[in-house]
Amino acid sequence: MWFAGVGWVGTDLVVAVVDASGAPVSARRAYPVALLDDLVADLARWRGAAPGGLACVIDSTAGVLERVLVEADLAVHRVDPPHARARAPHHGCPAGGAPVEQLAALAVTSPAALQRLTALEGGLAGRDAEVEQAEAACVPLEDDLRAAGSLVVRGPAGSREVALTFDDGPHPEHTPALLRVLRRFDVHATFFCVGMQAQAHPHVVEQIAAAGHTIGHHTWSHAYLPDLDSLSLSYQLERTSATIENVTGTAPTLVRPPYGGRDPRVLRELAASGMTTVMWDVESPDWARPGADVIVRDVVTGCADGSVVLLHDGGGDRAQTVEAVPRILESLLGDGYRVAPLDRFVPSAGRTAAAPRPSR
Ligand SMILES: [Zn+2]
């Protein structure tokens, strides 16, 4: 079997391949994110050439790759700290995930450090207890942040309004398809964009903004933020904000941590960045491609007054989401909901109850 360390450095995706003894098969190659398909094709080619197949190894900062590789039917494993650590920007060197040579070598020397990722489990598979503990530790702080307007989980009860949010894009095909649906229904949504994707597809970011939707921040590489030190976290925040601002002229004010992953330190640093952290109360595992019927059912039965709905426009093939959204909108609008821009759910100084309501 061969092992491919797959990761990112700055604006590029990178890969290095070793054989079962750890000897290099392919030295590091870099791909701009826009050429993600080429990376996947190369991995499939190595899989075909390797005796016993190919295992891909990513780290917990490389969520931008995770679903795409899983959906390509590649064997994907995740390695976490302390075995693999992201690199903060240092002396002019760009930030990145753990070195891909190190990820590939770990598969040979420390196979127990590898967590297999499947099509049906989320990217944090195998870390449930740890994630739950980190989230539980956030509860007292979250009450304070909510009161201060730095954290939103849902809008006010009794408003008959819901907000739609789409994560992990922009995607060159699925995001424009969703924009057409939203325009047809004359509603606005929020797109939490991954910085690397925004950099690769700026014209899609422009389309989102031009259609009047809100662009939020979903980190640079779709990292599990509690695994990052403060310097790496700042890099993720600043680089993404700068990329979005370069395209739209406006820096994002809303941030959603990938996987909803947070601990008290992460929440404090997000709040200190001046952005409002946005969670959600309704979701469907559309990233696992359960079928449009399931996505429609999950969202429609889950919604209540003030709900914030999480779906995905990127990170893989989201055709099922694109198929589900018109049916979701028909149902919600038919039930008397208005689809509100998310910023109506963000308490801010000066907003009053008399603020005009959107038509839907
Ligand atoms: Zn995400």
UniProtKB/TrEMBL annotation:
It comes from the Bacteria. Residues 160-340 form the NodB homology domain. It comes from Cellulomonas wangsupingiae. This is Polysaccharide deacetylase family protein. PANTHER family: GLYCOSYL TRANSFERASE-RELATED. InterPro entries: Glyco_hydro/deAcase_b/a-brl, NODB_dom, Polysacc_deacetylase_ArnD. Pfam families: Polysacc_deac_1.
